[in-house]
Known about the structure:
Structural class: alpha/beta
Helix content: 55-70%
Amino acid sequence: MTVNPQIDAAQGECIPANRRLLPLGLNSLGPLNYAFEETGNAVQKLAEVCDKRTSARAMALKKKLDDFEPSVTLVGQVKAGKTALTNVLVGSPGLLPSDVNPWTSVVTTLHINPKHEGAQTKALFEFFDKDEWDKLVLTGGRLGELAERAGADDEMQEIQRQIAEMQEKTRSRLGNDFETLMGQQHRYDYYDSELVERYVCLGEDPVTGAPVEGTRGHYADVTKSAELFVDLPEFPGTLCLRDTPGVNDTFMVREQITIRSVRDSEICVVVLSAHQALTTMDMALIRLISNLEKRQVILFVNRIDELPDPATQVPEIENSIRATLKGYNAPHDCSIIFGSAKWAEAALTDSIGSLSDESRNSLIEWAQAAEDFAVDDVEAHTWYLSGIPALMDSVYARVREGSGQRTLEKVRKRALNLANQARAATSTGSRMRLNLSGDINVDVKLLKGSLKALIQTYDSKMAAVLKDLQDGLSSRLEKAEASFVKRATDALISHLQKNGEHGSWQYKPDGLRLLLRAGYLNFSNAASKNAAALYAQSAKDIERIYMEVFGVDLDGFHIEPPIPPRVPPPVVLGKTIALDLQSTWWRKWWQKRKGFEAFATDYARLIHSESGAIIQELQETQVKEVLQKISSTLDEFLQEQSEMLLKLAENPELGSEHFQSGSDAELEQTQGALGDVLTRLERVAA
């Protein structure tokens, strides 16, 4: 159900003076836009010369190109300026508030130049449903689950007390609206900072806890997500930006939603502060990005405007960051970009003169050490120095290599198949009319039986492949867990033999994550390889039917196999587990046990419990989803090909229905147009 609250149509966003700066430096976007445009033109041409059925499928492919929206998730340290960075990226300084409620799970998604949402919707807010809220209240969220598994009874009681207090404040603020809001949505045909604050900001003073006057933060307690749809004509493309509140909140609700956001995005921008860089205190961030490939991670070090000597300090900070990442098996050779959201905001709002003396001095120092950009345009020069163009260029370079390329290839291959199918149909119809090579007599019943048998064969092959993948992964994960448990308990017993039962001890779970990640990456490679092989084999079999049953003999005739689905990174391995926590839990855990055997047995049980929860979530979410996509991709391909072959058998002139009463020259013209489509599509690939 959707609720449409009353809105003030007079309200709207404030557009800064220099949004002309937004497309500057986006060198990586040009080739991608060109490839999309050329492919779209070829698909449009295909729709114009084919029958209605093929035309409809071609236009559906064109819509996939039009709706393409690369997704980027921003994560980062508290007070690193992540939200300020998000605001300048969408050309709207001050739009998103920075003081997000520390216990809500609000992920704010900004769709730049979207084409998939109704034109009237500019803001969409979704609330927790009752089951999600009840789970938080009953279990204490992720932190409560950890406390329960670790046997931390006192901590569990404290968590439940805090949640009860939170729930009471929520009900007091919302009154009778509380129950009716659960699972609902609010839509608006506008957005501004005041509206956003109402749904995602603190409803009380962060120090005193006293309610804030007005509507600020009114719905924040129960808001699950916020979406804004931003029309930005100055920006040459579409983009989905997810601004996550953080990964280390009181009840760890946000950690789960941030992990899901990163999993669903191909690119993760980690925002750090030049003052904090990346210390061992940021373990939640390090655990998260450790499970991503280096090409998926971009580090943006913000607030260099506060460094007295950025030219000297930036290389030192970069070396420190890379050393820290390397020490924790994270992608230390990923892209690191330095900049300042404050400088970018000043350039956008034409307020460079209002920067503090310290900030201006840092800007001058940084400019002297950087390349000489358009110095005659102060705003553009400052924009470049802010690091925003470098960040966006890095993002789109990855989009071009990743999701953009995959989308392009999926559409291109489907279009190639449609064009070749139309060529085969037109050729078959033409030969039938001219009585060349004899009449085309296809036993439709026999063809149906052959296609059914082919589909059943591939169903069996796919089932075997999926079983092997699933069994192989389960075996590797179990071995990884057993190996870690043995090493950890051996180390514990060794410690006890040397030090007795007094004192404290901890064995870091980094090795467990490393082993689990290695097992998952092995699965990922095998899944992509096996799916590609099966897809290619099925395409060859379909191609053979065209040639043997219909006598298709055309230059360049080919059936393209589908592209295997992307296997997302195992970001769930970055979840906080009890073994990560440095707290009083461990002291109490030690105090409750007596004897070496009790220590080792209970510790092994705790490891099994924690790792088992991660493995179960990994298999039930990501692995299950990947295997389903691998199977459904082949099903859809075979169904579409079978449908076309049967249509052709039942109506050989299907591909030339517009020209059945026309001349042979018109049929030849159709073949020429289809050949031109193929040439365009091949040119895009090159």
